[in-house]
UniProtKB/TrEMBL annotation:
Cross-referenced PANTHER family: WD REPEAT-CONTAINING PROTEIN RUP1
Protein name in the entry: Ubiquitin ligase protein cop1 protein
Classification via SUPFAM superfamilies: WD40 repeat-like
InterPro entries hit by this protein: RUP1/2, WD40/YVTN_repeat-like_dom_sf, WD40_repeat_dom_sf, WD40_rpt
Organism name: Heracleum sosnowskyi
């Protein structure tokens, strides 16, 4: 058996794994040789748009798309001050995603809607409510909850001192806590049973636009500084990882996490959908949506995304655009070859 010299041994250790200091955040990050890879095949299944002949009205913009915990219902909201509820069965037809694309109209595809007092920036279904309660964050800086059976608001809270609430989320583990991001550049974690906040994480250079729970102690945030960040809420100041590749400096492009699949999705100001694996800081899948010029001559962009939290080997991803068009993608895990 051959013995490795001290220099050779040091070289192998350096090649297999390197540790660098992130100068911007002062965090030690472990970088393994394993490269970012995509274990999924995605295909466009359904496109839902307005029947209006005028494409890209500002009031059409989809600011948020959100599946209920069962994966059977989809809620959307935005500038139009409406929460629209869709049944997934009406959006996915048998065989779509494999042999063709289904085209639908919002008016016929939507089951019902609820009017809201302000423009909506965020929607989240409340865990444990059986799909009956949905929470929202709005342009007036208010977090609200709506009873969908009675179609009325049942909870209201101002967490950011009147500053606009761009995002809110619930944990899916007991105790159920909430998180919200705001103009003040912070992410607040709060308990509805308590008056004060639980913790505050600051690290984005600009507005925190979205906050999403990946698991009971991990939150992913997005900001207009052009990056996503993963935080350990057990240690609020600890940054786990930064994700870069998409374009985001002034618009709201959506953020969603698929918890069981470990995937993160966001839009981009260049009208692309980006998917990241939580393990790597680079995107594993990028898809450009068909470009449509909005009213006023501005280019469209991806303004909302959402994962269906069902299955482990199959997934459903929705992306909403500033033109009001909703696109549904189906994904299947690639079969790994036997070695």
């Amino acid at each position: 058996m051959k013995n490795l010299s001290t220099s050779q041994h040091h070289s192998l250790l350096t090649t297999s794994s390197t540790i660098r200091q992130d100068q911007n955040q002062g965090v030690l990050l472990q970088e393994n040789q394993e490269q970012a890879r995509c274990d999924w095949d995605f295909a466009l299944s359904t496109v839902v748009s307005n029947s209006s002949s005028v494409i890209g009205l500002a009031s059409d913009a989809l600011g948020v798309t959100e599946f209920d915990p069962s994966g059977a219902l989809l809620a959307t909201g935005g500038i139009a001050r409406k929460i629209r509820i869709y049944n997934l069965k009406s959006l996915l037809s048998a065989g779509s995603g494999n042999h063709g694309v289904t085209f639908l109209d919002h008016a016929s595809a939507c089951d019902y809607y609820i009017c809201t007092p302000a423009k909506l920036s965020s929607l989240r279904w409340k865990p444990g409510s059986g799909g009956r309660v949905i929470g929202s964050g709005d342009y007036d800086g208010v977090v609200m909850e709506y009873d969908l059976e009675r179609k009325i608001p049942v909870f209201e809270r101002d967490e950011h001192g009147g500053r606009r609430v761009w995002s809110m989320d619930y944990s899916h583990w007991n105790p159920i806590i909430g998180a919200s991001g705001s103009d003040d550049g912070s992410m607040q974690v709060w308990d509805p049973r308590c008056e004060g906040g639980i913790c505050v994480a600051k690290g984005h250079d600009k507005t925190v636009t979205y906050a999403r729970f990946m698991d009971h102690h991990t939150v992913v945030t997005s900001g207009t500084d052009g990056c996503l960040k993963m935080w350990d809420t057990d240690e609020p100041s600890r940054l786990v990882r930064t994700y870069k590749g998409h374009v985001n400096c002034r618009r709201f492009i959506g953020l969603s996490v698929w918890r069981s699949g470990g995937l993160i999705c966001c839009g981009s100001e260049n009208n692309q959908v980006f998917v990241y694996d939580r393990r790597w800081g680079e995107p594993i899948w990028v898809h450009e949506l068909e470009s449509m010029n909005c009213v006023g001559g501005t280019d469209g962009f991806v303004s909302s995304v959402g994962w269906r939290q069902v299955d482990e080997d199959e997934c459903t991803l929705v992306a909403g655009g500033s033109d009001g068009v909703l696109q549904v993608f189906v994904g299947k895990r690639k079969k790994m070859p036997f070695l």
